Amino acid sequence: MLIAGVLCVCAAVASAGFGAWSLSQSQAAETTATTATTALALRAMAPTQLAAAVMLAAGGVVALAASGHTALVLLIVCVTGALGTLAAGSWQSARFALRREAAAADCGGNCVGCTLSCR
């Protein structure tokens, strides 16, 4: 369980690092709508990455501190929860990006005078 606990804690640190990096990206205006949508979708993944980091950290701490059977069950629950959270967040972020690109395409990329909501 020591190796699994250390791996979980390392994965938690990596996930938190990616989440913090996503949050630190500037919201400056991008040159194209696709680039702006991609940046926004990546930024939208930050809370999901941070939530997965918390779950992985909890699983790692339990794996390091608890007895064998209890640690194994809780480690499986925490890792499964983290992976499910990342999958759901990725899916939602991709759906958002696709809807935003479709709206921009309907407006012709120019929202001035357009009755559709591009933003």
Would you write up a description of this structure?
The chain has 119 residues and is mainly α. It has one domain (2-24, 38-107). It has helices at residues 2-24, 33-44, 46-65, 68-107. α1 (2-24) runs antiparallel to α3 (46-65), α2 packs antiparallel against α4 (68-107) and α3 (46-65) runs antiparallel to α4. The longest helix has 40 residues, at 68-107. 19% of the residues are buried.
**Structural class, from secondary structure content?**
mainly alpha
Total number of strands: 0
β-strand percent reads under 5%
* Total of domains: 1
Q: How many individual helices?
A: 4
Helix content: over 70%
Query: Based on CA inertia axes, which overall geometry fits?
Result: elongated
Largest sheet, in brief, is: none
Q: Rg to the nearest angstrom? A: 19 Å
Q: Compute the separation of the termini in Å.
A: 48 Å
Name the poorly predicted regions: none
One letter per element, helices H and strands E, the order comes to HHHH
Mean pLDDT: 83
Write the layout of secondary structure elements.
Layout: H1 2-24, H2 33-44, H3 46-65, H4 68-107
Features:
single chain; 119 residues; 80% helix; elongated
In short:
By secondary structure, the protein is mainly alpha-helical. The chain contains 4 helices and no strands.
